[in-house]
Structure formats: structure tokens, C-alpha cells
Amino acid sequence: MLNSTLPEIYLITPPITDSEKFLHKLQxxxxxxxxxxxxxxxxxxxxxxxxxTTLLVKKLxxxxxxxxxxxxxxKIVTQLGLHGVHLTNGGQSISKVRQDLGTNYIIGAFCGNxxxxxxxxxxxxxxxxxxxPLAETKFGxxxxxxxxxxxxxxxxxxxxxxxxGNLDQRTIKALLKYSDFIAIxxxxxxxxxxxxxxxxxLLPLTQA
Length: 208
What we know:
The chain is an alpha/beta fold and about 210 residues long. Helix content is about 40%, strand content about 15%. Strands 1-2-3-4-5-6-7-8 form an 8-stranded parallel barrel, surrounded by 4 helices. Helix 2 links the parallel strand 2 and strand 3.
């Protein structure tokens, strides 16, 4: 349904390689901003490192009661007491993951710029869909999603939609009525001053 409230902030971590350094950054962000949830991306393929890093991030977020979703590694969701999983494959495995996790955990799906994939994900039981990027990538290898897709979704579909990828002030302002969540990730972590970049990026939310 068309939003009557402003979108919430959905924070995406970078692929974490240095837990201590990143946790310091993450704490600075969540201390000063209202974050709806955090999606954890991990670069390691080693089980022990994945579990240890996830637990460190969860411990920090638990202090603020911020839900933690892990990207793709759904098999550790119940083991570590996470809130759910974000699937990056357009929701193709939602049915399988839902069968494994049951109904008490969040399953989200990234669907690129495809309304069709998003609809399939919703039909398969996704709790939310993520659409993007919202601007062309550096290498121009992904076609950007349109604001019209969000507008249509907000008028027709009740499942929440997340705007993700290459966001800027102008795009966020255009999405205020149509997106349930604004996903912020590399837009800030790649910046020299991530706190300034975060605040600058979200001006349309604070001024609305």
C-alpha cells in the first residue's frame, strides 16, 4: 500500500574482513541513527570465521534491539538466534529456505531490477523484496531499476519493498512515498568520512 510514513533505514554491512575495525564504525552509526535492521555480508568461506563474526555483530546489535539478517547463510540462522536471511538469488530458493526455517524467521530476496522476479519471490513467501540498483554501476553491467516499479508496487502489493544499490539524495527523495525501506551500504562504507556521508545521504528523510 502507498506509504503513509517515511521509509525506514535498512543497513547493509560491507563484506567484513576486519571485525574489530568494522564494529567500531557500526557502533558509531547505530548510536546516532535509528536503524531498522542490519544485513550482514561476509567475505569468509570458513565456518568458524563466519560464526564468530556473526556473533560479534549480533552482540553489538542486541544492545540496541536491532534485528540481524545474514546474507545467504540461512543454515546458521536458527543456530545463532538471528532474525532471518537475505537471499541474493532473486528468491529462487525461498520455498526450500522457508521449509528449513519455518514461519518465525524473516526471508528477504534481492530481485535486481525485475518486477517479475519480485512478484515470484512474493508468491513464494518472501517477507520483503529488494529492488536495485537505482543508478548505473561503475562498470555499467547492471540496468538500473525504475522509480515507477516502486510506485506500482506500493499501490498494488502489500509485501514491503526495499530500495537498494547506488542510492543518492535525489533518488531517496523520489522514493519517500514508495519504498518501505532505504538500504544503505557501500554508499557510506566506501566514503572517506562515512558518518558525514550517511547524514548527507539521508537529508531527504530528515527534511521530509
